[in-house]
Please model this.
Amino acid sequence: MLKTNQDRLVVQSVIGEVTSPKFRSPYRVSHDGRAMTLPGTGGITFNIRVGDPAFGWVADHVEPAVSMSNRETKEPGGAENSGLNTLACIGNRAVIVSGAAKGASGFVTGKHGGIEHVLVDFDWKVLEQMVIGDKIQIRAHGLGLALPELPDLKLFNLDPDLFRKLGCRTSPGRKLEVPVACRIPAELMGSGLGSASVASGDYDITTADAEAVHRLGIDKLRFGDLVAIDNTDNCFGRCYRKGAVSIGVVVHSDCILAGHGPGVTTIMTSRNGKIQPRTDRKANIAFYLGLRKDLFGAKK
Model:
């Protein structure tokens, strides 16, 4: 079993509230020049959860299940909300601490940059009990996670227990074998490139080229899928680097805007190519966390 530094990681509480959807303008202009009005970020999305398709919805940047932020400050980039978005990690346990669904638990499934939301999945019945403004506390654990035996590989935004459940192993070439649902070429990455840090937020797979999206199987992606992004270095921000490999989780839906598409939150990166992706159609966090047995069955 791969050794981690889990025993030295801090476990802290972070808290936020279910956010309201926001519209600064009713229209968004698509990459092919159409003005459209569509559902998007925020709120409780009652009919979409992690494991469902990231394509095909009449929506733009829609977030599965529950979107939350810390509203102690008015701006999305406020210090308290930055703390929530940086400390929370995919796979962390989240508990509702107010409202009719108080006591119900779920899991963090992603982080969405720009809007600065943390995304949390709950059971269908729990979603029906929730309202905007319900408070959710997260047991934040994972910031600083590392593999001492693989110092060239960096981990981000990942709960240590979820990392263990992924079943990663080292290959004879001392590369980390990681299950992924799809491989993405660097040239398709768009919004979010150039960010100085990947400790929160995401960046988008662009989908204006329909032929490439279909040929690579990107149009089959689901919320929660693990993907490999080739020739990308996410060690100290997001950039192109030949031979580098990054792994991320699909966190929001396809988008109509130029330079946008399904969002990916980084969980691993190696600028020296020490990651070996292994294709597995069950490579989805819903499968590893046991969230959608209706789609994936029970994890053995």
In short: The chain has a mean pLDDT of 95. Residues 6-141 form a domain with the Thrombin, subunit H fold (CATH 2.40.10.170). The radius of gyration is 18 Å.
